[in-house]
Design goal:
Largest sheet: 6 strands, mixed
Low-confidence stretches: 1-48, 285-314, 316-326, 506-511
Helix content: 55-70%
Structural class: mainly alpha
Amino acid sequence: MRVFFQGAFYFYKKIISLLPIPTSHFLSLTDTTSGSQHKHWYNWQTRLPSFWLHPLLNLMWLIIGISLRLANLTAKPPWTDEFSTLVFSLGNTFLAVPLDQAIAPDILLQPLQLNPAASIGDVVHNLATQDSHPPLYFVLAHLWMKLFPSDGGLVSLFAARLLPAIIGAASIPCFYVLGSVAFRSPLVGHLTAAMIAVSPYGIFVAQEARHYTLAILWVTASLTCLVIATRHIQNRTPLPIWVALFWVGVNALGIATHYFFTLTLCTEVVVLIFLAWLQLQTSSSPSELGRVKGKGEGGKVLNPLPFPLSPFPSPHPAFLGWQTTSSKFSLLFSPPWRRIYGVATGTLVAGLIWIPILLENRNRDNLTEWIRGSRVGLDWLSPIFQALGTWMAMICLLPVESSQLLVVIPSGLVTLIFFIWAVPIVLRGIKIQLQHPESRIMIQVLGGVVISAIALFFIFTYFLGIDLTRGARYNFVYFPAIVVLLGASLAVCWHPPKELMGREHEKNGIKSIGKWGINGKKAVMLIWLTGFVSAVTVFCNLGYQKYYRPDLFVQLIQQVSPVPVLIATTHKTYIHTGEMMGVAREIKLANSPQNFLFLLAHQDQDPNLSSIALENTLKKLPRPFDLWLVNFHAPVAEAVKTCVISDTKSLSSVDGYEYELYRCQ
């Protein structure tokens, strides 16, 4: 254990040592006018305790995070997107399921059976020809699920969900590295890791057999490289070649995991353009020239303030002469920028590889049809509220989705009160961080990532007709930046810097950051505990509920139908196959002696094709049986009219399954 702690601490020191700004810069700054030494306000962040404390705290956040992600891991049934992960990761295909004929549950579930003959090549080929996602995660899941035995003849849901849960937990120390490197503060790193460990959004994406936790891991690593590059831009020192290569590799892996990772890359481009503009602005300002030359006429220091006037500290001495003789635009070809251009070129090449596949995916627009919402009337406001709900649920999500009104109303009121109290605290912490150049530039960088990503989301939604706000999981592209900003704000609450807080008191007449007598460490602990309760809400399925509840639907059928059952649905893509797979899986788990059949009535552009398939199937089945039309979007077949429609108003509704019941005697 001692060796583990020593190794982890050595790794942390190695990362910090690679940054170009010396630690002494963060401990004190000299007032050259009076000769006195002013303690830097980051002193509260940079006091390092014993060597074992940081690894021990990170281990604690890791244990908490992985425990929450493994809790009730298989309690919630899989939904259509998870079924696509299971089928394609096994190297199987949905094309094996017969259409337009009555089939037994076991036939419908055949793509979920382990296939020893399938290879990685089969996984990649099936994805390229039938799906719209890159293959990296599916290949990893293919290799992973081979390590686990089948569950009742089907692929193990526990194994499928265990992989993203482990990756999600592994990202917790990565969040610590991002926070501590960005602000040169172990405190910010620990608060960032603590918040991601209990984030309800983090629990949500980690408990699904999907690729979003892996994508979050790549986003975190890419933002860490962006932070390191920002430091080198500040000092005008070359970006280490290993950082540049690592950055390109991470970006390539991110694109190979999810195409929306390119949105993260777009936000990084925006931030780098902002940094270039800021450097051009400050390079020709008097304060910058004074810092470059060191002294003005008569030997008087031109910038005697304890803080530099711009976010960029004095250039590295090796480049002072070069700076004074070059035009300001030549800064864009200075050592850090040249390697950043190399990173951009390498990332572009890695992205261009996927262009042919993306062009092929255009022929499968029906897979993303659900995300193209209408914009009529109040529908224009829906994306705003959807985005607000996702942002709130990254921190707090009480059981507002409970089926009991006595739980929903108090939960909603407590959530509202919590954000009325917490938002001013977080904003004040960000404001205080902005008062110092070293933290201000990082707030601007990470804030630029968040703002740019949100702008892209709304551009896609309102101008391109692709409502990205409908899928909360897509917010992975900027989720790490939000958590780090939250950690930086809470660090101010945990141990407020006396110098700047004193200025705040004199200026605004305030006595504390918080309201209602809850501030400082108490506020941080309360926000963290709210996140912990929210995490419990998620794995108990009282928040971020599944879109489909086949378990409840099967229970309803068993209660209502004492005779054999035919479940018919219209079929366009494998999404609809997945809807029925969920029902068939619950039937298999229940070991029901009742006879069930399924009909996937396919249609392309003509809905009548589904009606004809249903008509032909009903003529072949012996009666009596109950016909359940589930998500059936086609005209009613003539043969259905020979059955008696049952009144289902008294029956409970089921998420994901709209149904009608006909009794065919």
